[in-house]
Amino acid sequence: MRRFGGLTATDDVSLALAPGARHALIGPNGAGKTTLVNLLTGIIRPNAGAVLLDGFDVTALSANARVRRGLSRTFQINQLFPDMTPAESLWLAVGERLGQGGNWRRIAGADGAVADEVEALLRRFDLLGMMDRPTRELPYGRLRLLEIALALAARPRVLLLDEPAAGVPEGERAEILAALAALPAEATILLIEHDMDLVFRFAQRITVLVQGRVLMEGTPAEVGADARVREAYLGADAHG
Question: Cβ distance 200 to 220 under 8 Å?
Fold first, then answer.
């Protein structure tokens, strides 16, 4: 549970993700989705309840400590260094994972294994052609892909993606979906997204959040057919 003054943003939300899950969290604006992600990742602390990672209680751990334990995220609004290139950003991210973030420029020219990893991430997210351009010059869709690549550089066991398609032009959304489909099968993914086409194509299970509480959880077919969901969020004609 999380309260902000007299407002209860999340209330008695229970969410369990199996290893390798492809799970989506949906709900109307103000439903508490980002608040829940912030609670899971340690940006804010709950007023009640606990966050468990592989059975270990991480509720008291900082966001950085949770990353080190294998929990990474992306943000609705890109958290990128505009003057750094994609290659430099990934060198820094890998260096942080290895405990050498302050020396990332040195390892960039000296560690062949790290160089291979950075190149593989650039290739996976179709960033090789613009790897040396300042991030501020990248098309918006590529910025979203870079943020996913940076989260993946931490080698998370659990990856939370907060609206990765937000603001991405329609013509570039297929690349976001392709990137999500190519994420490591062993990684557990929680996707928070308003793009219902992306959600229904990606997720194996969906949790619906309304006014800070879980309305239902089920397969995409079950969620799409549920009258309460259709009324609250999807619309009467959505997905059948």
Answer: yes
Contact 13, 38 (CB under 8 A): no
**Per this entry, what is the length of the chain?**
240
Residue 190 β-bridge partners: 23, 160
Backbone phi, psi, residue 207, to 5°: -110, 135
Indicate the pairing of strand 188-192 with strand 158-162. Answer: parallel
pLDDT reading at 236 higher than 50: no
* 3-state class percentages of the chain: helix first, strand second, coil last, to nearest 5: 40, 15, 40
pTM of the full structure: 0.91
- With CA atoms as reference, report the closest residue to 17 among 34, 37, 31, 47: 37
Asked if residues 143 and 127 have their Cβ atoms less than 8 Å apart, the reply is: no
Given a contact cutoff of 8 angstroms between Cβ atoms, the answer to whether 8 and 200 are in contact is: no
